[in-house]
Amino acid sequence: MNFIRKYKYYFSLHAVIFIWGFTGILGRIITISSTSIVWLRMLIALVGLIAFMVITKRGFYTGNLNKLKYLGTGVITAAHWIFFFEALKISNVSITLTTLASTSLFVAFLEPFFFKRKIIPYEIILGVLTLAGLAIIFQAESDYSVGILYALISAFFAALFGTLNGVFVKYDRPTLITAYEMLGGVLFITIYYLFTGGFERLEMPTNIDWFWLLILGLVCTSMAFVVSIEVMKELSPFTVSMSINMEPIYSIIFALIIFQEDEYMSPLFYVGAVIVMSMIFMNGYFKRRARLKGEKVPVH
After folding, report:
1. Using H for helix, E for strand and C for coil, what is the string for 191-260?
2. C-alpha–C-alpha distance, residues 287 and 298, integer Å
3. Phi, psi angles (nearest 5°) of residue 150
4. pLDDT at position 233, please?
5. What proportion of the chain, given as a percentage, has pLDDT over 70?
6. pLDDT digits (tens, 9 = 90+) for 223-242
7. From CA 71, how far away is CA 177, in angstroms rounded?
8. Rounded Cα–Cα distance for residues 13 and 227 (Å)
9. How far is CA 165 from the centre of its chain?
């Protein structure tokens, strides 16, 4: 029974990663601006999370200082998504998702600061090699240099809010944290709109855009988040984090199937992409080896 249950969780986890892999596709399909996408995505996700918390009778209370921290992290999350979707729109899925894989590089240098630990030597080496892979991509696809830059900025923000959440989750429930973060992002973009000409800047989606936005907000954000937390009851954080590394690969495969020629890159790009992806899995390998030796290692 436990065996069956564990594989049920494995299936659920990879279903979530499969769904997340589709996020990049939606970013290219939805026709409105990146800021509008993020505002609507976070609003829809917030409503979904509130509904989930009400149905499951989970409280909304947390300390005022915690609320401010979560709301502030929501601003970082919004910035991450804005740069992510903008990178998708001015480059393509392959460029954006491959560059976004550099998140692990940023995490390696942020975690020691937030978790008061020493920098692990192999993380520096892997970080340098990741940069080498990104440099190859930049050289091979210089026409997409702005998109690569935006994706790098997005990766930094992803590493920052991910690391912060690693601290927050010790004190509050993930659903509560995320709900406040979604609220923080919505408020941030709302204030931005109010100070830059009002909501006239908010582009209204077409009917088909609304459909994709609901998928993005409810399925790719709220539902996927809830399931990703649920699987941690049975699967280790290490297993989850390693499995999530498949997301860029899923996205690139989807993009090649759906967008075809628009996603075909030069051979040198794929050399850089292989280097970047390899560093992600090497990071997991070294952490697993250290864990088997009984060493305490960070998981990201």
Report:
1. HHHHHCCHHHHCCCCCHHHHHHHHHHHHHHHHHHHHHHHHHHHCCCHHHHHHHHCCHHHHHHHHHHHHCH
2. 8
3. -60, -40
4. 64
5. 88
6. 887 787 677 667 665 566 66
7. 9
8. 7
9. 12
Coil, helix or strand at residue 40: helix
Q: Which residue matches tokens 């929501």?
A: 74
H-helix or E-strand spanning residue 266: none
Cα separation values, 16 from 22, 188, 209, 225, Å = 10, 28, 22, 8
pLDDT tens per residue, range 136-194: 888 888 788 899 899 999 989 988 888 888 778 778 888 888 899 999 999 999 999 98
Secondary structure class of 169 (helix, strand, coil): coil
Among the listed ranges 173-187, 204-218, 248-262, which one has the minimum average pLDDT value? 248-262
Look at the chain and count its residues. Answer: 300
Segment 193-213 shows an average pLDDT of 86
pLDDT at 195 over 90: no
Range list of H helices, the chain: 2-21, 23-29, 34-55, 64-90, 93-100, 103-115, 121-140, 145-168, 174-195, 207-214, 224-230, 237-244, 247-258, 267-292
Contact between 213 and 44 (Cβ < 8 Å) = yes
DSSP structural state of residue 57: T
CA dihedral 199, 203, 204, 207 (to 10 degrees): -160
CA separation for the pair 231, 58 (Å, rounded) = 19
Helix 207-214 and helix 34-55, axial crossing angle in degrees, nearest 10:
50
Measure the CA–CA gap between 229 and 266, rounded to whole angstroms: 38
